[in-house]
Amino acid sequence: MINANMARKQTKELINNNSTDELKHVEELIHRAMKKGEYETQPIGGVLKDSTIKKLKELGYKIELGGFYCRQTIIKW
Fold first, then answer.
1. Domain locations in the chain as residue ranges
2. Band of the pLDDT at 25, cuts 50, 70, 90?
């Protein structure tokens, strides 16, 4: 049986990997929008993890959250 410390470590690694994957995806969306001469983008599905939103804000992006029935995220620069 896996011990608690190992389970905690593996969970943290999985969270970090998922956050990194999401940031890479957002970066791709930003590059695509830039190439079109746009100043904003919206992820498919419109939802980002709180940790991704925090990192984008740290990098100077403006994040708008909206949507009446579901959460939508718009990333602006």
1. 4-76
2. very high
